[in-house]
Amino acid sequence: MAMLTEIATLEEKYIELCKKHGTVPNTSILSAFFEAEDKKSRNQRCVMNLLVDRVMYDDFHPILELCSEMNASEVEGIDLSVRSSCSLEDQYVLSLIRSVDQKLRLVDVHGCFGTTFWRDVFSQGLSCEVLNVRSLHFRKLNIAGEFTQLHTLILDSNRVTGFGESCFSAMPNLSFLSMCDTVVSDLWTASAALLKLPSLEVLRFQIWICCSESSSTPLKPQSSTDENMFDESNSRIEADFSGVFEQMDPDLTLEETLSMDDLNAEVFMREKVRKGKMPDQTNDLGDVGLKYISTKASPICSKKHYRIYMINSLPKLKVLDNLAIRKSDRDRATETYSENFEHLPYKRKSKESVVRVLEKRETRSSKWKSQSSYTRSLCAARMGSSAWPLLHSIPSFSRVQDEGRSLSPRQFEYHPLDPSLMVYGTLDGEVVIAGSANGSLKLYDIQKASSTLNATTHTASGSVTFDDFDQLTSVHVNSTDKLFLASGYSKDVALYDIGSGTRLQVFANMHQEHINVVKFSNHSPSIFATSSFDKDVKLWDLRQDPSQPCYTASSNKGNVMVCFSPDDRYLLTSAVDNEVRQLLTVDGRLHLNFDIVPTGSSMNYTRSYYMNGNDYIISGSCDESMVRVCCAQTGRRLRDVSLEWNGSEFSMMFVQSLRGDPFRDFNMSVLATYTRPSSVSEIVKVNMLAPRDNIEEQSCGLHCYPSNSMGG
């Protein structure tokens, strides 16, 4: 066995290397040698701490050569830190890190390095045991490289919003992950990424601080089993890394940071932690005992039943947000999860592969009682294979040019019979039944308007002009294609005859404030509904006296829109800031309240539609970058679809409108605006059954025509 180079000898070699390169030895390196010798004399683990931010260009080459010598020395580990701005360029720092790869123990850096540096680190991996990264400029985290030795990962105070599909795929020994004070918000993609960590035991998206008047010391676990589990987790993480934890929160000791474990807590949420309203998490934590305050909370912590969802989704997790997970907590999580969430579509209990579903179909398994049963199981298998649905824009929308100007969509609809066609409208464009801001109404015949699918605008050829409706915002045709209704920034609704082109009647003062949307039912040509900011939704029948609605149903806030379920059994109402309810069409009684957490914004306009026939509803709001998918029969949440977009810059999209695809299960389209100020709105297709990296789905098979069909 080869002799290891002693630390004193290593120091001498470093001084010689400095002479060779004509530079003075770096004092921080000499101090590191002194500290290592001191640890050796006290029979402690011999670890050197390299402060890279104190390394200048003249120091680089001697230190680089020294690092190669360290791999065969008494030095047992190297801690590499960058705690302030670094004078070395990224490639020099990366070379130093790679040169000590065999002995690398801790990497403690902040995000002063560029994109290329982090992409190299995250894609190639490191051999360190602890990685602490602050101030990252990445919004989508995708650490896909091999980190086989890593057991502690600290990503606090970064602007990370979500995870890539390959993130955490090669971290077999990671047991502690902290992501406090990030911007992560999506339960589904977060849990899917975390499930790739087979050894994960401790997870933090926030820190619970004890504020009990009677005691400043957190309670220990009540059972010996819990205590052994907790002590084991602490001792493994603590090792020699207490300094790292102290940097994370100077107000907490390591014991306090890791040991706030009593779940019987009355929760007092600090308003400054998160803007807007937060759901009451008391039921998830317990209702008696100590008082805790949440600090450094990421937005994901504000999701309703966040703790329940995480405990149920991560069966090996032992500590969440400093609170130990006990058997009673898991039992409660299982029960609450089943009451509020659908694990898979159509109540499927466990994941099956698509291949397995197809095999059962080919062998004519008794499980398949109908084509519908097979289709539903196939949907569940495909959705269960990835938490990241495919998103892509419909190309012709954002790049349509009309006399040199770019047309930005304002509203859109699927063709009712042809799955390859979609119509959209702008504030000054026309096609199909369309209305525009100047009040004009026209009917277009697509067959006559264009003989090609590549046409971007249409002239008045093949159109019929109707009487104006002032300040028009919404039009809708009845089930026989003989009549349509128009509404706008007024309290009136107008009825038009499509065959003659005449306005038949104006129904005045149907609401106390202007009418946002008017909708005919899908099967009864005389039944229609209106929604208004006066907080009322009303059902009307053209065969009865138009001065009196069939009934009125009220919301707590102004109603943005209303629509009928495909079979007309229900009315889906959407009021400002996520007040989404389902009513019985027959008499307006409440059938379901989808109980979506409000943001507290009076400008958060919410719109909801049906998807997969009557099976699911989709709901989105203009101040939020996600679409909620809920079961229309139970109200349980199936999934939140986070609208993340990868272009040259990572950008979030906000929901202006949306529609479920009437021809494709678990497909929808979303009219989205972007955080980039220069961006125009565009229509994005979402396929929940295809993984985001499925490039074969990039062509959606939709042809688009400009129009102006507004209203929801």
From TrEMBL:
Keywords of the record: Repeat, WD repeat
Gene3D superfamilies: Ribonuclease Inhibitor, YVTN repeat-like/Quinoprotein amine dehydrogenase
Lineage: Eukaryota, Viridiplantae, Streptophyta, Embryophyta, Tracheophyta
PANTHER family per record: BNAC09G30780D PROTEIN, PROTEIN DWD HYPERSENSITIVE TO UV-B 1
Pfam families the record matches: DHU1_N (PF20919), WD40 (PF00400)
Stated name of the protein: U2A'/phosphoprotein 32 family A C-terminal domain-containing protein
One GO biological process term: cellular response to UV-B
A cellular component annotation (GO) from this entry: Cul4-RING E3 ubiquitin ligase complex
Family matches, as SMART domains: LRRcap, WD40
WD repeats, residue ranges: 508-543
SUPFAM superfamilies: L domain-like (SSF52058), WD40 repeat-like (SSF50978)
Domain called U2A'/phosphoprotein 32 family A C-terminal: residue spans: 303-321
